[in-house]
Amino acid sequence: MADFSGSDLTCLRGERLVFGGLSFSAKSGDAVMLRGRNGAGKSSLLRLMAGLVAPRSGDLRWNGENIAEDRTAHHARTHYLGHQDAIKPVLTVRDNLRLWGQLRGVRDLEPAIDRALTALQIHHLARVTGRYLSSGQKRRTALARVLIGHSDLWLLDEPTVGLDRESCAELAQLITEFRGRGGIVVYSTHIDLDVESPTILDLDDFAIPMVEWLAEQDELEDMAPTKRAASSQEAAQ
Ligand SMILES: Nc1ncnc2c1ncn2[C@@H]1O[C@H](COP(=O)(O)OP(=O)(O)OP(=O)(O)O)[C@@H](O)[C@H]1O
């Protein structure tokens, strides 16, 4: 039984504190749905969960171990699907999937690609190059990547964008099957995806009001001379 949790997370993007005091916990078979207004920090949280950026404070743990301790292990167990489909325009759909599988060191790659193409109903597009795909077909190809190779954690940022109603239903079914195999899925969406009883994490509940953010900036500025004094002392020693 796997356990994925975050405690007291604060996220800084650029110079802006996006959210603070955010905690969550998920176990094998769980689904966590992120929601919140535009800019609330759903993508940012997914990037923290993927280990692509570090939280400003707080930590993320997999089976009790901080994911920052072994990023390679965390990347190996995680499939992260961001906003960008990252489909190479000059490669065919099959070659895109093959490249991805090779990068992840997937064994028995060709049958795995066939299964993913079938699951996403894009087998007929296998020989089409990326540049000729519609946005929905690109999204399905990106989702097919998630099915290639073993993973314990799916992090899906707006997976339904560009998908028609039928594809959304198929995605919900793939999520159900993944959960049935003990996977944990965290996803953001602005539309209703038919996923059974997800835990809902509303990022609006963790927004840091501008006034608090400004106070924090003042604190940081006040701290700066102290830090400078400390580092010049350190240099003198
Ligand atoms: N690369 C970046 N550099 C600086 N600030 C960023 C960056 N990316 C996002 N932000 C800021 O971080 C905040 C959170 O953005 P994020 O994309 O995580 O929100 P979101 O909830 O996913 O939004 P949406 O629903 O519009 O996709 C926003 O205020 C945004 O302007």
TrEMBL record:
InterPro entries in UniProt: AAA+_ATPase (IPR003593), ABC_transporter-like_ATP-bd (IPR003439), ABC_transptr_haem_export_CcmA (IPR005895), P-loop_NTPase (IPR027417)
Keyword field: ATP-binding, Cytochrome c-type biogenesis, Membrane, Nucleotide-binding, Translocase, Transport
SUPFAM superfamilies in the cross-refs: P-loop containing nucleoside triphosphate hydrolases
Domain ABC transporter: start-end pairs: 4-230
Molecular function GO labels: ATP binding; ATP hydrolysis activity; transmembrane transporter activity
Gene3D superfamilies cross-referenced by the UniProt entry: P-loop containing nucleotide triphosphate hydrolases
Domain of life: Bacteria
Any one GO BP annotation for this protein: cytochrome complex assembly
NCBIfam families given in the database record: ccmA
Protein name according to UniProt: Cytochrome C biogenesis protein CcmA
Source organism: Thalassospira tepidiphila MCCC 1A03514
